[in-house]
Structure formats: C-alpha cells, structure tokens
Amino acid sequence: HVQLVESGGGSVQAGGSLRLACAASGYTVCMGWFRQAPGKEREGVATLYTSATGGGRLYYADSVKGRFTISLDNAKNTVYLEMNSLQSEDTALYYCAADRWYNDWGQGTQVTVS
Q: What is the per-residue pLDDT for 88?
C-alpha cells in the first residue's frame, strides 16, 4: 500500500483551469483520479498505468475527454490532472487513488466551478 497526498484543488470560474497533483509514498502499478459530486456516485475521471515513462494505457471518462489530461512523473511517483475548460458539472470532491485495484485513496481535494 501507498500513502497519497493530493494538492491543487480550489475554486475557479467556468472556462478556467486547475491542476491537481497526487504524490504517492512509493511505487504503485496504477494511479488515477476519481470524483464525487453531491448526491452522485463516485466516478472515474482519468487513470493510467505507471509502468511506462509518463504513464501508459491512459483512460478518460467521456465527460472529460479533450479537456482533462492525466500525466505522470515517474521519478516522483506523482500523477497530475490538468483540467481545462472547466464546467459547473466538474464541481466535485476529487480523489486520487492507487494500486492495481485502486485500494489506496487520498483524502480528496475540492474543485468548485462557478
């Protein structure tokens, strides 16, 4: 298991951008971002395998394709989520998760788009 520390959430106007970061305490096979909006179930946003430099086998939810980019700094065991063209529908608590089955979770960071 790894410990995960997230950063980078905040409030932004619609159309703006934010960058989230998640640092893992050690190597992990998979890392990704999930989110949960009030009254909704948690959903996967973007994930990757860490075996490739910069991350491999990238996955994006349809709702964020073309707007969000997930990337990995292998040396730092840190995954980033660059979020552009943010919409009110992106407002949620964003969680970083890791492990082959995403058993390790961060505390979450709030993203609010108004």
A: 96
Backbone angles phi, psi at 41, to 5 degrees: -80, 155
Residues 6+ apart with CB under 8 A from 16: 86, 113
Cα–Cα distance for residue pair 81/101, rounded to 1 Å? 20
How would DSSP label each residue in 5-38? EEE--EEE-TT--EEEEEEESS--SEEEEEEE-T
CA gap 92, 18 in Å, rounded = 13
Distance between CA atoms of residues 9 and 15, nearest Å = 15
Would you say 6 and 109 are in contact if contact means Cβ atoms under 8 Å apart? yes
Mean pLDDT by 10 residues, the chain (114 residues): 94 97 94 96 95 83 97 94 97 96 95 97
CA-based end-to-end distance of the chain = 36
